[in-house]
Amino acid sequence: MPRDPALTPLVEMLIEVGRDLRSAGLVTSHGGNLSARWGQGACITGTGAMLGRLTPEQFAVVDSHGRAQAMHDPPPSSDTAIHLAVYEGVPEAQVVVHAHPVHAIALSFDWDAILPINLEGQLFIPRVPVVEAAWQASAGPVAEALREVPVVMVRGHGAYARGADGWEALKWISALDEAAQILILAGKG
Ligand SMILES: [Zn+2]
Beta strands of 72-145 (E only): which ranges? Predict the structure, then answer.
């Protein structure tokens, strides 16, 4: 079954967001994952996809249970359950981005919430909660936190952001890492 052409602009947006995440150093070569809400499920990067070098073939369309919908699609990201939990729990979420912003990860070990001191951080993301969960068990806590705030940290692991589109989710992740870097540079970390 050929992929619905209506997916093309969504996939193109996610490819560009992935490139920006990688070039900004917000993920390693093979880290992170991206998705867009699609029907009852999502269109999500495949397992092990390189976010800086995505192609349309590296996305998988999954249903609400995470089952791949097309035989030729790659296996969906191992974070698929987390993305689907966000779409189910947060109606306004159209895109979910997972990245590894290193400054925010460094702060997450000792903090229960990241509280920016810079102006942009205070305006956009005044409080970024840090949830304590093993990666495999983080779907519930991440989705619950994203009902209240646009970006959340999983302690010692990384950030999940939701947006009306990929650019908005990228903005939250970028703002978070900038705020965390400033906290560290200012000696508050
Ligand atoms: Zn991760």
Answer: 95-99, 113-114, 128-131
Predicted confidence (pLDDT) per residue in 103-154, tens digit = 999 999 999 999 999 999 999 999 999 999 887 889 999 999 999 999 999 9
CA distance 26 to 137: 23
* Dihedral angle computed from the Cα positions of residues 162, 176, 130 and 105, in that order, rounded to the nearest 10 degrees: 120
Q: Rounded to an integer, what distance in angstroms lies between the CA atom of residue 104 and that of residue 98? A: 13
Distance, CA 156 to ligand 1 centroid (Å)? 10
CA 1 – ligand 1 centroid, Å = 31
Listed by start position, the domains of the chain span 5-185
Q: How far, in Å, from the CA of 39 to the mean position of ligand 1?
A: 25
The pTM assigned to this predicted structure is 0.96
- For residue 31, report the distance from its CA to the centre of ligand 1, in Å: 6
What number does CATH give the domain 5-185?
Answer: 3.40.225.10
**120 C-alpha to ligand 1 centroid (Å):** 25
CA of 162 to the centre of ligand 1 (A): 15
Cβ atoms of 10 and 36 closer than 8 Å: yes
